[in-house]
Specification:
This protein is α/β, with parallel strands linked by helices and about 400 residues long. The protein contains 15 helices and eight strands. It has a six-stranded parallel beta sheet with strand order 1-8-5-4-2-3, with helices on both faces. It has a two-stranded antiparallel ribbon with strand order 6-7. Bound molecules: nicotinamide-adenine-dinucleotide. The site of nicotinamide-adenine-dinucleotide has 29 residues, from helix 5, strand 6, helix 6 and helix 10.
């Protein structure tokens, strides 16, 4: 056995623990620069409450920016410039509050504000620009997730999009794991059912893909099993009743575990195809992963039968099926879950056309696809995607 395991330094998890944000933030600095990832957090008073709780703990704060879309190169460059004008240096730290989009923007800006070899994040992204490395420590960062999906609060990368040219790439460094995670599942109660469904399936996809990845490791696998046992029954409940404390707690915990798992073990085909589905077809990340998950499980079945059976038995210890039967039953269970929560079965329902397939195949060859448990040649991936039209 031989592995490296990276994990967040501080995780504070629990219902209504948002109230502790001031006390927790005091360990990071005296002045908070806030980046948020949803207009709902402005309209439902969460941002106002955040600033008031910080103030009561003696921390001054400034709300820098809200985005309600997946962050682009231009967002990171623009917000980094604003931060440079507002930052005073010692005592400053960032708070990223929102879904994966807001947290990723905050993560990228926390790194870019201290690494200024180039004016644009483009030059630091994997495989594009000048290929610069992050050498300086990012500004301290607290991450407060408000969706239960990406686990970005626990990962070492920020995913940044560009639409012309079209790509989605990561800014990545072990130093980018947020210094402090405050995960209050109550914050996700305002997430509408459709977004709950697709972000939740992103977490389930991450738990599954990291479990079967070619880079899978024992510690993340244990986390994935725990996450799947929580998330698979909880997700339909969270979609049906967004105020359910148990469902929101289980989903938030599963998403957090999925972030730790993916950061250590990598992902696979569903997460390989999701970036070009985002940049070429404007499909939100979680939805892209959700539609791709059943077909990814089927494509890997020949090399993952044992792992699927292990997961199926963990979910149902009374299962008496053979490995082959258990693996098939597990894939059917995931398809049924998608159907139950309203995830479409095809990409054509999301507007994808046959003419886009060559770009989707070409755009899918990133870091995630390299974790897939078997190689999927271009011709096979083309056929798989054509089968979803
Ligand atoms: P998101 O952050 O884009 O949010 C989806 C929608 O939910 C937005 O409209 C947002 O306004 C809304 N929303 C967020 N919180 C809300 C709340 N509490 N109440 C009401 N509405 C709320 O979606 P996401 O799926 O969380 O993040 C997607 C992004 O994360 C993508 O860019 C994806 O590539 C990236 N990602 C990053 C990592 C990582 O490790 N860094 C991992 C997976 C995905």
């Amino acid at each position: 056995m031989n592995y490296d395991f990276f994990a967040p330094r501080q995780i504070h998890f629990g219902w209504d623990r948002f109230q502790e944000v001031g006390t927790l933030a005091a360990s990071l600095g005296t002045r908070a620069l806030i980046i948020s990832g949803s207009r709902s957090l402005e309209s439902n008073g969460v941002l106002e409450e955040l600033q008031s709780l910080l103030s009561r703990a003696g921390i001054t704060s400034e709300h820098i920016r809200t985005i309600s879309h997946e962050p682009e190169v231009k967002d990171v460059d623009h917000v980094t410039n604003i931060l440079q004008h507002h930052s005073h240096g010692a005592g400053d730290f960032l708070i990223g509050i929102g879904g994966g989009s807001g947290i990723d923007l905050a993560k990228a800006c926390s790194a870019m504000i201290t690494n200024r070899e180039s004016e644009t994040v483009l030059d630091y992204l994997e495989g594009v620009g000048q290929g610069l490395q992050l050498t300086e420590e990012p500004l301290p960062l607290m991450a407060i997730p408000t969706t239960a999906g990406t686990g970005s609060e626990a990962t070492k990368n920020a995913v940044i999009s560009s639409y012309a040219p079209a790509f989605k790439k990561s800014l990545r460094s072990p130093e980018m794991i947020p210094d402090l995670i405050l995960c209050d599942p109550k914050l996700a109660c305002s997430v509408p059912p459709e977004i709950t469904a697709r972000t939740g399936m992103d977490a389930i996809t991450q738990l599954l893909e990291s479990y079967i990845s070619s880079r899978a490791q024992p510690l993340p696998q244990a986390l994935s099993l725990q996450g799947l046992k929580l998330a698979i029954p909880a997700l339909p409940l969270a979609v049906e009743d967004g105020s359910s404390r148990t469902a929101r707690e289980n989903m938030a915990h599963a998403a957090l575990l999925s972030g730790i798992a993916l950061a250590n073990s990598g992902l696979g085909m569903a997460h390989g195809v999701a970036p070009p589905l985002g940049t070429h077809c404007r499909i939100p990340h979680g939805l892209a992963c959700a539609v791709m998950l059943p077909v990814t499980l089927r494509a890997n079945r020949s090399v993952c039968e044992t792992q699927y059976a292990e997961i199926a038995r963990h979910l149902d210890p009374g299962l008496t099926l053979s490995d082959a039967e258990a693996a098939d039953a597990f894939i059917d269970q995931i398809q049924a879950l998608n159907d139950q929560i309203g995830i479409p079965r095809t990409l054509s329902e999301l507007g994808v056309t046959p003419e886009q397939i060559p770009d989707l195949v070409a755009g899918s060859r990133g870091n995630s696809m390299r974790g897939n448990p078997r190689e999927i040649p271009d011709e096979e991936l083309t056929q798989i995607l054509q089968g979803l039209l």
